[in-house]
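RECORD TYPE: protein structure
NAME: Threonine synthase
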Amino acid sequence: MKLTDFPSDIRDLVIPAPAGEMLYRCLDCGNEHGINELLYVCPDCGSVMMLHETSNLAAKKADGPTWRKVLDHRRMLNIPALKGIYRYHEFLGPVVPLESVIYLGEGHTPVVEANSRLQELTGARFFFKNDGQNPSASFKDRGMASALSYINSLIQKGTMKEILAVCASTGDTSAAAALYASYLTEGIKSAVLLPQGKVTPQQLSQPLGNGAKVFEIPGVFDDCMKVVENLSSRYDVALLNSKNAWRILGQESYSFEIAQDFDYDMANMVVVVPIGNAGNITAVMNGFLKFLDAGIIETLPKIIGVQSHHANPVYRYYLEPDTAKREFKPVTVKPSVAQAAMIGNPVSMPRVINVVETYNRLSGQKNVFFMEVTEQAIMDSELIANRNGHIACTQGGETLAGLMEAVKQGLISSDETAVIDSTAHALKFSGFQETYFTGTFPPEFGITPNPELINAPEELKAEGLTEFPASGAPLTGEAFERFVRLSADAIAARLNLSRQT
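PREDICTED:
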């Protein structure tokens, strides 16, 4: 749709120009720092930071009802920079020029309602938000689009050059970082650190295919993260993990999309997300807070964070009801099929603590909850979801298991609707499905396959056949017709099909 066809009262607002004032704010000492260079931790105290837009740009430009109208009309534009997460430019990186925005098709992933059978099994009305339909097949593309767009703006200004983008990863971060870095043909290369043997072959192939330098490090993700932190503190690199506040900023788009897809009515809504490095749940809460502050939504949805019992430091922290007695303690993780959640010392834990407090206060009640689920429940839930028409990854199985646990605990009522996060595409974790079907999970996972969920191909050679087609040696004539007929009859017999009358 052309701009001239838009209503005159919003025409000047639809295409944004760079504006506003942004800075880093430390969550510990409160000191503020400019954004002219990339900072990952506070130079004064070493704590993590968050980005803030300090000029109150969104409120100055429009009120809530006008913003809804603007955002809904931006849907109809054919400007690539506004097709992705930067549809919400004023709420993400308003200082980033549209010509710096990298758009690879990320964002605006579908929300798909569960079928009646799955909703009945779960005990709640809910939707999967399929973030595995992002370009690199995970939600991490949201943050990379933000971080790399800002880096691109610095390159274009001439304030950065010859950048090495580096990250630690359990798979999805490395895939997204390598993809977006490879799109920038000038001035940037990428390197990723992966825990050796802890990344699926499908995930490993992605950064390799995009030309990143890949290093496999002994240990788990937390060990890789420490190496990357040390690297970024002593060498000139661009850190692309969630310590990078621009990464968290881009992931806020998940909340904006949910609000828009449900016509900005967040009353009786529940959003369920898995917790790994704690960046995503931070971003989800912060996104809804921004829309509330701008008057775009009037109610904050309930937030439920889910962790595996094999990696549950955030869940353990919130087990203590007395805020004065809470003490965060990292945990030693055990193997998990939800690999992105297999993090015992989440980088964004200070952000979670800060934002949860604000979220509950502005909700007027406790509105953020945390669930723990078993590895068995995660794997079973993934398979059940996909048997009912979804493309859920193991993290999607984790959120479904968390939803069922929340219903069981009475945290979700019959008049509430949930949106649960499938963070990556199911194909990234197909190896775990195969392991389940073959019953070959190592004991440390604690997973026993349910025979009702096991599926495997069946070899079929119909009785009475002595000749079979082969590559380079096809059957012909009567032999081929006999092969087709008897094979079809054998399939019909196994499936108990009735003949046509």
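COMMENT: The first helix runs from residue 11 to 14.
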